[in-house]
Amino acid sequence: MKVTRFFVVAGTALVLSAASVGAYAQASDANAAAAPAASSKAANRALSKSVRRALTKNKQIDSTNIYIRARDGVIRLTGFVPENAQIQAATDTVQGVSGVTSVDNKLTVKQPSGGGN
């Protein structure tokens, strides 16, 4: 009877040990999956900032109303510029930024409002 009880206790300990190792492995996998998503988000944010800086430095472009979205190297430009030539200038500028793989330029021309009269 003592031998049977020993095997029951040993078996229970073995099952609990295996369950805790499985739970740890699942938690580690979840953390590993979350890490690339966070680093990808940070990389997209950093790329957006680099694109914004490049557009701001280009004196041929009024980047005030240009909105930038970066996703895995693809840049989408939306918003408007005051002159048609600035649309192509924006694309050319963004393509020169390190890390940019392609540009989806959705900019349109909109004249600034005159205001007052």
From TrEMBL:
It holds the Pfam family BON. InterPro entries: BON_dom (IPR007055), Lipoprotein_DolP (IPR051686). Residues 43-111 form the BON domain. Transmembrane segments: none annotated. Residues 1-25 form the signal peptide. Gene3D superfamilies: 3.30.1340.30. Keywords: Signal. This is BON domain-containing protein. The lineage of its organism: Bacteria, Pseudomonadati, Pseudomonadota, Betaproteobacteria, Burkholderiales.
